[in-house]
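Lecture 7, part 2: worked example. A protein chain together with pyroglutamic acid.
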Amino acid sequence: MKTVLLTGFEPFGGGKVNSSWEAVRRLNGRVIRGHRIVARRLATVYDQSLATLRRHLTTVKPALVICVGQAAGRAEVTPERVAINVDDSRIPDNAGRKPVDGPVVPGGPVAYWSTLPVKAIVRALRRCGISASVSPTAGTFVCNHVFYGLMHELAKNGNQVRGGFIHVPLLPAPTTPRRGSGRAKSGPSGLPLEMMVEALKVAVRESLRPPWHD
Ligand code: PCA
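Predicted complex, written out as C-alpha cells:
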C-alpha cells in the first residue's frame, strides 16, 4: 500500500508537550484515500531533525510528506507557503545550538514553494469549521529548517512526491480554578486535540485529491 509520511516534533523551549506530535501520532496506521499514514517524531534539533527525516524518506518511500510543527503564537492551522534557506535562532534548539544567519543548505536556492495545495487545504478546513489560513513564513527555527530540507530533497527527485509543512496552534492550556471565586479560568486559546487531528486528516485528503488545482 502507498504511504503518507507525517512528522511532528518533540517538545522544545521548556514545553512539556508538542501539539504537532500529539496530533500526528494519533494518525499512525490510519488509511486515507488508500494511503497508510506513517507517523514519525523528529528531534527539535537542527542537524538531527533533517538527518532523521532523510532516513524516513528513504525507508518509508512516501507518496506524500507533511511535516507538522507547533506555533505558539498562532490561533489557526496554517499551511506554509514557502521555505527559506535561512537558519536564524532566537532560542537554542534541544542540543543547545543557536545558529545566526546561516544557510539550511549551503549554496541552495533562496527558497522553495510548498508543493501542497495550500489554498485548497485552507478552504477545506474552513468548510469543516476549523480556522485556517495560508502562512507566508515558517520562521527561521527548526520547522523552517526541516521544511526547506524536505523540499530540497523532493526537488532533487524531480518533485515526483508532493510535500510541505503545516504549523498547528498549541493545545488548550488546562483550566485552573481562580482562587476565591471557585470559577474556572480559561487559559490562552489553543486548538483541541480532536480538531487538530481532524485538520491533519483533511490536509492529507486534500493533498491526495487527484487532480488538484490551487
Ligand atoms: N515548532 C518549532 C520547532 C519545533 C516546533 O514544533 C518551529 O516553529 O520552528
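Residues 9, 12, 18, 20, 44, 69-71, 139, 141-143 surround pyroglutamic acid (CB under 6 Å). The longest strand covers residues 2-9. Keep this in mind for problem set question 3.
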